[in-house]
Amino acid sequence: MTKENIIVTDKAGVRLITMNRPAKKNAINQDMYAAMADALNGAQTEEDIRVVMFTGSGDSFSAGNDMMDFLNPDARMGDADLPVERFLQAILTAKKPLIAAVNGLAVGIGTTMLLHCDLVYASDTARFSVPFINLGLMPEAASSLLLPFAVGPKNAAEMLMFGDFHDAQAALDMQLVNQVFAADTLMDEALERARALAAKPPAALLLIKNLLKREPETPAMRMARESALFGECLQSAECKEAASAFFEKRAPDFTKI
After folding, report:
1. Last-in-domain residue among 160, 179, 198
2. What is the DSSP string of 126-190?
3. Residues 29 and 89 in one domain
4. How many domains, in total, are found in the chain?
5. Which of 66, 72, 127, 225 has the smallest CB count inside 10 Å?
6. Residue 254: inside a domain, yes or no?
7. CA 223, 224, 225, 226 torsion: positive or negative?
């Protein structure tokens, strides 16, 4: 499926959403936010889609929000009907795993959206910046909360207060990304990881993501929650298929579950 500036392709359980506005370094306008929100929300109810992955075309992941939007008096952040807000809600509430393949420049929301992704892979040419301070703006996408958890409070303060660029190695050292690959192998490596994830037991995968994204609990509360879910999973078709495959010395097949 192709919409203007957004390409959506489904293969092997993975929905790949590509921001395709290379002449503008994939700066995201309201039409692109709407298309991505629709593609992401649609994936939540499509059984064949197990994982959603974001990337950009050309040499950039995304240069951030289209600056022309800031000049639009009707584009008020916080309006639930605004496409950017629909997209932010979509990445916040997505139940299925989200992966990003950051193939280059990642500015503003090009970086903050990564905080909602479960796994982030970057090319060695990737560069990250959250330059809101330089525009007299505040962080968005809950990044003032999530960034300190991701990279530590001191690194988050430096990123948000200065708005400087950080290269792929710095992002890896801060644990903003999981792995860094050569630019010419990034997509192959990221898609391989995405397809491997899509082949995992789907219900168990959703439960794990849900646990990882839950608000903090005491260890006792989380242990009790995990034990209850563990007991339910023992009775699941997925667990029975995994056990059968183990004893039959074959790879499990969860595609029909």
Report:
1. 198
2. -EEE-GGGGGT----TTHHHHHHHHH-HHHHHHHHHH---EEHHHHHHTTSSSEEE-TTTHHHHH
3. yes
4. 2
5. 72
6. no
7. positive
Mean pLDDT of the chain: 93
DSSP labels, 109-130: HHHHGGGG-SEEEEETT-EEE-
| Residues 109 and 214 placed together within one structural domain of the fold | no
Site of tokens 């006792």: 220
For residues 213 and 190, state if they share a domain: no
Mean pLDDT of 67-95: 81
Q: Within a 10 A sphere around the Cβ of 68, how many other Cβ atoms?
A: 12
Query: pTM higher than 0.90, yes or no?
Result: yes
70 and 148: one domain?
yes
Residue 144 has pLDDT above 90, yes or no: yes
How do residues 85-129 score in pLDDT, each as one tens digit? 999 999 999 999 999 999 999 999 999 999 999 999 999 999 999
Q: What is the mean pLDDT of residues 135-159?
A: 95
Token pair of 177 as six digits: 């990304």
Phi, psi of 103 (to 5 degrees): -95, 5
Burial 24-42 (b: 16+ CB within 10 A, else e): bbbbbbbebbbbbbbbbee
Q: pLDDT of 6-56, one tens digit each?
A: 999 999 999 999 999 999 999 999 999 999 999 999 999 999 999 999 999
The parent domain of residue 43 ranges over 2-198
